[in-house]
Amino acid sequence: MSYRDWHFGMKLVCIDDQFGWAMTADRRYCVPIRVPMLHEILTIRELKPAGDKLFVAFAEIETIQKHGPLVAEIMWGAECFRPLVTKTTDIAVFSSMLSDTKQKVPA
User: Fold this and answer.
1) What angle do CA 58, 60, 63 make, to 5 degrees?
2) Spatial separation of the C-alpha atoms in residues 90 and 96, rounded to whole Å
3) Is 18 inside a domain boundary?
4) pTM value?
5) Over its length of 107 residues, how does the chain's per-residue pLDDT go in tens digits?
6) What's the rounded Cα separation, in Å, for the pair 36 and 83?
7) Fewest beta carbons within 10 Å, which of 1, 6, 38, 105?
8) Does 78 map to a domain?
9) 71: domain range?
10) Number of domains in the chain
11) How many Å is the Cα radius of gyration of the chain?
């Protein structure tokens, strides 16, 4: 699946949680405060292309984060995420076993 198939509301899984931080010289304050955690499932709020990269904002994480004097708009590189793959369960084979009337058992 290409990034072009990504859309608002789509669920992504974090596959790389090695993000950088901006910090004041005295190391008292840093942003971002909240980062995606490895294997965390997040919902796309916004997609923003910048050059040859794509950045993603999530509904679960505030885009504008501040800590003391530092304020930043935080978005994450799309390469750190993959689409969530949901498996659908098909119980048709079990339903047919229950309703199969061709097989007769002598009484």
Assistant:
1) 55
2) 12
3) yes
4) 0.74
5) 688 899 999 999 999 999 887 778 888 888 888 999 999 999 999 999 999 999 999 999 999 999 888 898 999 999 999 999 988 777 777 777 777 556 566 66
6) 14
7) 105
8) yes
9) 3-99
10) 1
11) 23
3-state DSSP of 10-51: CEEEECCCCCCCEECCCCCCEECCCCCCCCCEEEEEEEEEEC
One-letter identity of residue 89: T
Question: Which DSSP category does 28 fall into?
Answer: S
Looking at residue 78, the DSSP 8-state letter turns out to be G
CATH for 59: 2.30.30
Q: Which residue is it, tokens 């995420």?
A: 81
Residue for token digits 């999530």?
58
In a domain, 44, yes or no: yes
Task: Please report whether residue 105 resides in a domain.
Answer: no
Q: Which of 43, 70, 67, 71 is nearest to 57 (CA)?
A: 43
Q: Which residue has the tokens 């048709």?
A: 92
d(CA 83, CA 76): 14
